[in-house]
Write a structure and sequence with these properties.
The complex is a heterodimer. Chain A has a single domain, classed as N-terminal domain of TfIIb (Single Sheet). Chain A contains 4 helices and 4 strands. Chain A has helices spanning 3-8, 38-47, 50-59, 77-89, and strands at 23-31, 90-98, 105-109, 112-113. Chain A has a 4-stranded antiparallel sheet. In chain A, a hairpin with a 2-residue loop joins strand 3 (105-109) and strand 4 (112-113). The longest helix of chain A has 13 residues, at 77-89. The relative contact order of chain A is 0.28. Chain B is α/β, with parallel strands linked by helices. Chain B has one domain: Rossmann fold (3-Layer(aba) Sandwich), CATH 3.40.50. Chain B is built from 9 helices and 7 strands, in the order αααβαβαββααβαββα. Classes of the chains: A alpha+beta, B alpha/beta. Bound molecules: S-adenosylmethionine. S-adenosylmethionine binds next to helix 2, helix 4, strand 2 and helix 6 of chain B.
Chain lengths: 122, 268
């Protein structure tokens, strides 16, 4: 699971008012290099919740991203490289996503987050 | 669905265009996961038929609900890939084996997409609301007793409840919530699902529809329908957040019944 996906996920357990962002418990993080694509990065930058993204990257052990960012920074190749790396090359392979309100853990195994709810959570 | 009779027309097309869609020999398989079948091929054919429109559409986020083997999302990413490189692909399935199989199929084709195990799009509905430009769905559409719906493994691939509509009718409001203003939905339906009634319902929510592919096999008659937001007035309807669908339902019941989608329907 990439951080882009983490940024799109929230806890939707019944009764939870604000299930975003999910806290990450990282047991295994892997890196897979991929080619950089400016269009893609620009498109996704506009859709990201930056704070959640930075916090998530730090929980995977990557501390290079600035606390705040705006679109003008996409002109900087140094920023782009870091953004690209954190967004698309880091994968949470094993671990969990934790609901910020209830503490319920959604497991991530083999890179796949499992958001299925138990019957009493729907 | 479930039949062995491959549609010869589509099989020929597929072998002629190996680079544009997933290659069957590279599509992974699992005893509890739905293998690509006539319906999957028809959906991919519909996407291919609409490919030039899709390229022009420049979708930023593409999503598949119920990805099974991964054949469809992989094909979509491949057919748009090089010419529309700015897109993010995400696929869900309620069956964990299907999600794992999709991940393998994607990897076998060196396609980048993200996968999530969830019920329809649960967990994604809040943050992805209004962001999906293209959604593809080949739902479980076979009419079955209601209690077979929501079963584990391969049963979930086909069991569709009364008229095969139970899961479809749960997917439609989610699609409406997730689709962007320019969003398109491609969905497989069976004649028994009463596709015209589905289109009517979607029309009430502000969607136009068109049949992109119509195909009859020995066992079933399939329609691949494309939906897109049409009514300018639909914007003024409140978009439901997840959990507020009831509000919308009651609003809709007050709207006058709209005429059936006759004029917009065509076939390939
Ligand atoms: C007809 S199969 C289609 C598989 C694949 N997309 C294809 O076209 O070959 C339907 C798929 O939907 C999945 N499914 C059924 N109910 C679902 C639900 N509530 N949420 C997500 N996926 C579901 C099934 O597990 C199955 O993989």
């Amino acid at each position: 699971m990439r951080l882009l996906t983490h940024n799109m996920l929230s806890s939707n357990i019944k009764g939870v008012a604000n299930g975003f962002p999910l806290r990450i418990v990282a047991e295994k993080v892997i890196e897979k290099p991929v080619e950089m694509n400016h269009d893609f990065l620009k498109n996704m930058f506009a859709k990201l919740d930056w704070k959640a993204f930075v916090d998530a990257s730090r929980s995977l052990g990557y501390v290079e991203l600035p606390d705040e960012a705006d679109a003008s920074m996409l002109e900087s190749s140094e920023f782009l490289n870091k953004f690209h790396h954190a967004l698309l090359e880091l994968h949470l392979e094993e671990g969990a996503l934790v609901c910020p309100e209830t503490g319920r853990k959604f497991p991530v195994n083999k890179g796949i987050p499992n958001m299925l709810l138990h019957e009493d959570e729907v | 669905m479930g039949g062995q009779s491959f549609d010869s027309g589509s099989a020929i097309n597929h072998s002629r265009m190996p680079s544009r869609i997933a290659q069957i020999r590279k599509v992974c398989s699992h005893p509890e996961v739905y293998d690509p079948c006539d319906d999957s091929f028809a959906l991919v054919d519909a996407l291919l038929a609409d490919r030039s429109n899709l390229l022009e559409h420049e979708p930023k986020i593409c999503m598949e609900i119920g990805c099974g083997s991964g054949y469809v999302i992989t094909s979509l990413a491949l057919m748009l890939g090089k010419e529309s490189p700015g897109s993010f692909y995400i696929a869900t399935d309620v069956n964990p084996d299907a999600v794992a199989t999709t991940q393998k199929t994607l990897q076998a084709h060196e396609v980048d997409a993200e996968v999530v195990t969830c019920d329809i799009a649960s967990g994604l509905e809040h943050r992805l609301a209004g962001m999906v430009d293209v959604m593809v769905v080949n739902p479980p559409y076979v009419p079955t007793p209601e209690d077979e719906v929501g079963g584990d493994g391969i049963t979930a691939a086909w069991a569709g409840g009364i008229d095969g509509r139970t899961v479809i009718d749960r997917i439609l409001p989610v699609a409406d919530n997730l689709l962007s203003d320019k969003g398109w939905l491609y969905m497989v339906t069976l004649t028994t699902n009463n596709p015209s009634q589905i289109c009517l319902k979607m029309k009430e929510w502000g969607y136009a529809s068109r049949i992109i592919v119509q195909r009859s096999t020995e066992e079933e008659s399939l329609h691949i329908i494309k939906f897109w937001r049409d009514f300018p007035s639909s914007r003024s309807l409140p978009r439901p957040g997840s959990g507020h669908l009831g509000v919308k339902g009651s609003l809709l019941s007050q709207l006058s019944r709209l005429q059936f989608w006759g004029s917009g329907s065509g076939s390939s």
